[in-house]
Amino acid sequence: KPILLLEGIKSHGRTGNNIIEFLHAIQEARDMDIQLGIMYRSWAMKLLLTMWMAIDSDDWQTQFERTFCVKIFNREKELEGWDVVHQDTKELFYYRSELPLQEYVASQEQSLRTLFRHYNTGEGHDFNMEPVQDMCSGINAIFGKDERSSAMYS
């Protein structure tokens, strides 16, 4: 079975580009009707755990896989039996879906909503066992904890 695998630690650009690369990977897997896989010690996992879906329970991996419709691989050996599609992050960054624009936007919106439904609140840790930060801490530092607009969180 084919799988588009996000792997390695090298990525194209900074955080903004990496988010685009992850969203494009989700889209490409949908467009090609193949599974999306993520190596646990990869740029994608580092990106995702920094801002979303911190490790906070024993069944975290199962929840993560179900939430994002991905398969997480902890070791290379687990890839046996899969037909792995390799792409570097630059290729993912420049991926262009052939979906009509309205469908593409709806698909990307669904992915973004899924991410932000699971933003880090300062609970849990990343794959290096480091505590995660509250994603809203920057907003709170600028505007004050009680001054933020509820519209930002809807």
Notable traits:
154 residues, alpha/beta, 4 strands, 12% strand, 42% helix
What is the element layout, followed by pairings?
Elements: E1 2-6, H1 15-32, E2 35-39, H2 43-51, H3 60-68, E3 70-73, E4 83-86, H4 89-93, H5 101-117, H6 137-143
Parallel strand pairs: 1-2, 1-4, 2-3
Would you mind describing this structure in some detail?
The longest helix is centred in the first third of the chain and has 18 residues, at 15-32. This protein is α/β, with parallel strands linked by helices and 154 residues long. It has helices at residues 15-32, 43-51, 60-68, 89-93, 101-117, 137-143, and strands spanning 2-6, 35-39, 70-73, 83-86. The model has no long low-confidence stretch (mean pLDDT 88). Strands 3-2-1-4 form a four-stranded parallel sheet. It has six helices and four strands, in the order E-H-E-H-H-E-E-H-H-H. The N and C termini lie far apart (38 Å). 21% of the residues are buried. Helix 1 links the parallel strand 1 and strand 2.
| Main beta sheet strand tally, sense and closure | 4 strands, parallel
Tell me the series of helices and strands, N- to C-terminal.
EHEHHEEHHH
How many DSSP helices? Answer: 6
Shape: globular
Strand numbers in spatial order across the main sheet: 3-2-1-4
Secondary structure tally: strands: 4
What would the average pLDDT be, to the nearest integer? Answer: 88
* Beginning-to-end CA distance, first to last residue: 38 Å
Strand content: 5-15%
Structural class: alpha/beta
| Helical content band | 40-55%
Cα radius of gyration in angstroms: 16 Å
Low-pLDDT runs of 5+ residues are none
